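testing teh design pipeline on a random one, pls ignore if ur not involved
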């Protein structure tokens, strides 16, 4: 079941969580260790933020041995972004481009 856009905004209310989501969107699946290194924060702090995102069903994790990898739950992020854009930027469109998941553009019509 898709996340409620209000909960999506709550999850994004923290700059660290925004950065983590951006990192996962850009890189795909990323280990907790890589996220810790990129943000220069303690592992418990990063784990807290990942748990918040996971609680809102925006990320999923996968364990491989001792490492834990996180990735975006794309359908939930897309769903919320679509609803928010429809409400606040009705001319906004996502245009698929080969090799790139999406390009953001404003409709001129």
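output:
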């Amino acid at each position: 079941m898709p996340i409620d856009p209000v909960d999506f905004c709550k999850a994004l209310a923290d700059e660290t969580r925004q950065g983590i989501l951006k990192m996962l969107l850009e890189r795909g699946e990323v280990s907790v260790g890589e996220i810790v290194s990129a943000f220069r924060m303690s592992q418990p702090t990063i784990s807290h933020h990942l748990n918040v995102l996971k609680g809102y069903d925006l990320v999923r994790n996968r364990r491989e041995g001792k490492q834990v990898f996180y990735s975006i739950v794309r359908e939930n992020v897309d769903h919320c972004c679509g609803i928010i854009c429809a409400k606040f930027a009705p001319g906004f469109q996502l245009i698929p481009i080969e090799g790139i998941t999406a390009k953001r553009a404003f409709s001129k019509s």
